[in-house]
Amino acid sequence: MIQRMGLAAVLWALAACSSTVEGPAQTGPSTLARNPLIWADVPDPAVIRVDDTFYMSSTTMHMNPGLPLMASPNLVDWTLIGYAYDTLADGNASTLTGGEQAYGRGSWASSLRYHRGRFYVSTFANHTGKTYIFSSEDIGSGEWQRAEIDELFHDASLVFDQGRAFLLYGNDDIHLVELTADATALKPGGLRTTVIEKASSIAGEDFWVPAEGAQVIKRNGYYYINLISWPANGMRTQLVYRAKQLTGPYEGRVVLQDRGIAQGGLIDTPEGDWYAFLFRDFGAVGRTPYLVPVHWEDDWPIYGVDGQVPEVLGIASSQPGLGNLVAPDEFDYPEAGSMPTAIKLAWQWNHNPDASGWSVTDRPGYLSLTNQRLDKGLLDTRNTLTQRMFGPEARATVALDTSHLLAGDVAGLAALQAHYGFVGVEKSETGASLIMVAGQAEDAEVNETVAARVALPQSRVYLQIRADFKDQRDTATFWYSLDGSHWQSIGTELQMKYTLPHFMGYRFALFNYATQTPGGRADFDFYRLE
C-alpha cells in the first residue's frame, strides 16, 4: 500500500530527490548543513553506514506502516526509502476498536544493523509486550522477514559479535540477552546477564528518566554503549560506557549536556570523521535529529565543540528541504483495479488502516475515505491519513468534495495530537456546516468543543492549517475558502502541546468519520504544502 524503493531507486533518489517544501535555512543548490538536520519528528535515530551510504531507522509509534527507514550519502540529506512493516499487530488496540487504542505505544526505539550481507532492524511494542526483529537483503524493497519474541526488551540494541547475536537493553540497569545466531529467537540456555548496574549514577542521584536508549558500537578494541538519562530538574544527558569485553566491566562518562540533545549512537564516515547522531525535544513539532561532531581522546569520544552542539556543520547539503519525508499529493495514481494502490511514502495511517475504507482509484485523482463504522470523534477514527508537520512554519491545504457525505459525517483536516484541532465539514439532515473543533484527550476521556460553525453553501470547499514552530511558538490556525483563493480564518488558535499520551510530534491529518450511518464518503482532491 506504500511505495517502496529498491537499491537502484535509492541511489537515484539520494542524488536527485528534492521538495517544494523549504527546510531550515537551506536555500542554495549546495550550502553547509545546519542543525536540526530535519525540522520534523524523527525520534530515536539508529544510524549505520554500509560502504559509502548511511541508513537510519526511527520511531513512529502507533502509525502504520511503521519503523521508517531512510538513506543518505552524507549524513545530512535524507531520503525515506521504506518501512519495516505495514502493520505491527492486529487486535482492538491496533484497530481503534472497542474503546482500545495504541496511542504512544506501537513500536519504540529501534536498532539497525548490517551483518553478513543482510540488514536487521529490531523494535519492541508496549501494547503487545513483544520484541520484533526484521531482516532483509534489500533495505528498500519492503520484503522483510519477521521474527517475534514473546518478551519485551526495552530500548534494545542489536549486537552481532564473534558469531553470536545479542540484545543489549534496559532502563537504569543494562542487561544482555543472547539470541540465536540468525537473530530470530532467544537462544535456549544462552547468556543472560546484567552488564551495568545503575547506569544513571554517573549523572546524578535523582532522575526523571533513568539511563536507557542503548546504542552499541565497537571501535579500536572497545565496546561503547551510548545511553541517555534525564536528571531531575536538569536536561536530557548523553552518557557513554566502554569496556574491552561486551559483558564488561564498563566505565562511564557524561559526554554531552546541551539543550537536551541526546539519545542515539556514534557513526563514522568513509573519510574517518566521527559524529553522534542524536535528537532534541523541540516542542510540538516533535523530536528533531541533530548531528554532533565527535573526536577521540584516549579512546573516549568527545562530543561537540567545547561541549556544545554547533548550529552549522562542515558538511555540504544539496537538499533544500525535507526531501520526501513530507510530500504534497494530487492523488493522481495509476489504476489498480478495484484494490487500493500504493501511495507516497510520506503518508502514514493512524493505527491500522481498513483497506475497504479508502482508495485512490475509485474516483481517479482523489483520495476517497468511506466510513465503514460509527465513531465518536477524530481520535477513534480509522483511515485517518497523516504526514508530519515541520518547521519553522508549515501550511497544508486540501480541497474536499463533500457531495457523498451522509448526515452525521464529519470530514476535514486536523492538527493531530492528544491536544488537537481541526477544520472540517459536518453534514446534517438540513445541510452542511464548516466547523472548527478543539479537542483534548485526558486519560480515557476526550473533550471536544465546536469553536465555530459556518453554513456551507456548496459541496466543494478548501481547508487549510497554518502552523508556526518558530522559537517554539507552537501555534496552529484554521482557515477555509470557497474558491481556493480568498481565505477566511475560523475558530480559535490552537496552542499545540507535545504530550506523552501520543508521544509524537504533530501531524497534518485527513479524516472522515460517521456518527449516525456508515457509508458516507469524503473525496480529497489534493494535499498541498507550503
Automatic annotation (TrEMBL):
Keywords: Glycosidase, Hydrolase, Signal. InterPro entries: ConA-like_dom_sf, GH43_C2, Glyco_hydro_43, Glyco_hydro_beta-prop_sf, Glycosyl_Hydrlase_43. It holds the Pfam family Glyco_hydro_43. One of its GO terms (molecular function) is hydrolase activity. It comes from the Bacteria. Residues 343-529 form the Beta-xylosidase C-terminal Concanavalin A-like domain. Residues 1-15 form the signal peptide. Belongs to the glycosyl hydrolase 43 family. This is Glycoside hydrolase 43 family protein. It comes from Gilvimarinus algae. The lineage of its organism: Bacteria, Pseudomonadati, Pseudomonadota, Gammaproteobacteria, Cellvibrionales.
